[in-house]
Structure formats: C-alpha cells, structure tokens
Amino acid sequence: MFYQPVLETSRLILKKISLEDAEDMFEYASDPEVTKYVSWEYHKNIEDSLNLIKRILSISDKEEVAIWGLYLKENEKLIGTCELNIDRKNMIGEIAFALGKKYWNKGIMTEAVREVIEFGFEKLNLNRIQARCMVENIASERVMQKVGMKFEGILREALFAKGRFWDMKMYSILKREYEKNREA
Questions:
Q1: Can you tell me the mean pLDDT for 111-127?
Q2: Which residue, 57, 60, 127, 155, is most buried by CB atoms nearer than 10 A?
Q3: Hey, which residues does 150 pair with through a beta bridge?
Q4: Is 127 exposed, middle or buried (0-12, 13-18, 19+ CB in 10 A)?
C-alpha cells in the first residue's frame, strides 16, 4: 500500500478522490473530446463515474500507485486526475493524466505534473519519471515537453484501447536532469 500525501500548487490541491466527486468527474469524463486519447470510454451516466472512482480507490489502496484528484483551490471542484504508477525495484514512476476541457490551455495540467514530478524525485527518490501518450495527442505531448521531459521514441502499437492498437510516444525525465533544471 502506498501513502498518498496531499500536494498543493498555486491553483490546485492534489488529493485522494472520493465518491462525493462523482458529479464533478461526470462533468468532464462524459465529454468525448476529453476521453478521446485515454484508454477508457467517455462516461454515459453518473454510475460510470462512481464505478471509476471505486476502481481508483481500490487500486490506490492495494498497489504502488497514487491517483490524485485535481481540485481548484478557489472552489474545491474536481477538474481532472493525475496518476503516478511506481516501480520501486527500478526506481521509475509513470505519470498519466486527464483534465476537463474547460481547463485546457491554461497551464493547469503542467502545474500539476510538475508537482507530481517533484514529489517523485524529492520524496520517493525515483531515478526516472516517464509518460506516454497516443501519437495524435499533441496537448499531452506539450505538457510533457513543458515539464522538461525528453522524447525517447514511438512505441509501436503499445496500447490496445477502444477496439484498436495505438502507437504511443514515450517521454521521460531523469533525476539528474530534474536537479540540473532546478539549479538553472
């Protein structure tokens, strides 16, 4: 089991999601544009959101994974999620994220991912943090670039989702690169 702390940025509180967040999650997860490049289908009803939250809570109680809800400080509204899967043996973390369309292009996800990267390197002593996105997902790729990740290549047909195989772009940042960027 992994202890998941509350993290904070200038605009966000990153904390464990709860069943009370189902309506907020449904608001963004029911948008096919938001779910276009994620492995799960858009939510057709509030039950879909409740089921995902239950799955998130079950996973984060058992595995080496932190799945933070992204809450706006101004009103405590859930607007997305950011996940860190941890491979302690190899000291690697993998980040995945989703954000409501209303909050796109405002630097919010970049802010959240930076905070998760800092947590991974500073508190978990990871050596490498990586993220993948479908080749077509330019917005997620931009987030990875903005947080200092480097493009490593394309993993051919590395994900099966929504009835097909997807090519995935792989990005990563190493602890020494993160430390060098912080000093600059």
A1: 97
A2: 60
A3: 172
A4: middle
CA distance 29 to 46: 10
Query: Are 14 and 113 spatial neighbours (Cβ–Cβ below 8 Å)?
Result: no
Q: pLDDT tens digit string along 158-174?
A: 999 999 999 999 999 99
Burial readout 45-81 (b: 16 or more C-beta within 10 A, e: otherwise): eeebbbebbeebeeebeeeebbbbbbbeeeeebbbbb
Radius of gyration in angstroms for the set of CA atoms belonging to the chain, rounded to a whole number: 16
Per-residue confidence (pLDDT) for residue 1, from 0 to 100 = 53
Phi/psi of residue 32, nearest 5 degrees: -60, -25
Residue 2 has pLDDT above 70, yes or no: no
Determine the Cα–Cα distance for residues 69 and 92; give it in Å rounded to an integer.
Answer: 21
79: tokens are: 């607007």
Q: Which tokens sit at 63?
A: 């595995």
For the question of whether the overall pTM of this predicted structure is more than 0.85, the answer is yes
At position 80, the amino acid (one-letter code) is G
Provide the percentage of residues in the chain whose pLDDT is more than 70.
98
Please return the burial class of 110, using the count of CB atoms within 10 Å of its CB with bins 0-12, 13-18 and 19+.
Answer: middle
Give the 3-state secondary structure of residue 87. Answer: strand
